[in-house]
Amino acid sequence: MKKSAWLPAVIAPVVVAGAVAAPVIANAAADPIAGKDPSAAAVLASVASSRDAQYSGQLAQTSDLGLPELPSGSGGSSLEGDASDVLDLLTASHTARVYVDGADRQRFQLTQQLAEQDVVRNGSDVWTWDSKERKAVHVTLPAGSDVPQTGTTTPADAAERAIAAITPSTRVSDPTAVRVAGHAAWQVTLTPRSSDTLVGTVRLAVDQQTGLPLRVTVTAAGQEDPAFQVGFTSLDYGAPAARLFDFTPPSGADVSTQDLSERGGHHGGTGHDGAAHRGAEPSVTGSGWDTVVEFPAGTADRSTADTGTDTDATALLDQLTKSVDGGRAVQTSLVSVYLTDDGRVLAGAVPVSSLVAAAK
Known about the structure:
Blueprint: H1 3-11, H2 13-18, H3 40-45, E1 54-63, H4 81-91, E2 94-101, E3 105-112, E4 115-122, E5 125-130, E6 135-140, H5 155-163, E7 170-172, E8 176-180, E9 183-192, E10 199-207, E11 213-220, E12 226-237, E13 254-259, H6 275-278, E14 283-285, E15 292-295, H7 309-320, E16 322-324, E17 327-331, E18 336-340, E19 345-348, H8 352-359
Parallel strand pairs: 6-13
Antiparallel strand pairs: 1-2, 1-12, 2-3, 3-4, 4-5, 5-6, 7-9, 8-9, 9-10, 10-11, 11-12, 14-15, 15-19, 16-17, 17-18, 18-19
Helix pairs in contact: 1-4
């Protein structure tokens, strides 16, 4: 697998949200929130009832993970491609438009300076579009599949991961009433009981009427300001215009296709470096907030030097990480990633020392 392919995978914002995920044990029924003083379980369970919601709105995401400031490049060149995009998502604020018409029609627009990235799903058809690169990808999904994820998460994505972390290792607060984007919401705070995790609290704000997650805020242990937050700044319920879910690549765009309609949920690929590893299941050690996920050898092959963008990605990796026993690692305020010399990748919401111990 090319370095430019696996580097974003190990430090992407989705890892931040995924770091709060642990085995699912929530048993509450997915009933609407009832009464003026619902239980925390009822508030969290109501998220499931929002899967068929219809709405459009604007999201704001902020990230302050304590990553070092990096130069734009040397010799007049700058980091390009996936590595640069991921760093931008991790260190800068972003706004996005989202349009949802039930479970299988969505449009997500991430706006950046003089550029836009779109993910458009209409049934089994998914288009991704990068205006800066002028590249479009058309994916045909298997029946019942979820839309492929981008580097940016939504409140619903982050909330579902946090809900999955409700175990005996978590204190769950009583709901408090808040307002988000003009809508009344119940806010529940999850606090890890573990002293080894990097996560301090996760606050979930859920719409009182629909169960839709409106905002997710994650703070690091010992900190008050959010390390990661994503939430609606405006939200209107109702079916978006049908035309928003139709996508035609602009003239002159570089278009590629991928047909997954006949494939299962877990499969290997061919024709790409490291395809055999993409289907490999990661191993999991620990539990709750101390969970460590380990991807197999070959996931991060640092044994050879490539040219071009991959060389830039390698330089960026060396600046982000530090040398530790048996490899290189980076610890942000919420999640750590350890790249072993034999090509394994370990990640978790724990200090680097815990990852090094788990790798032995």
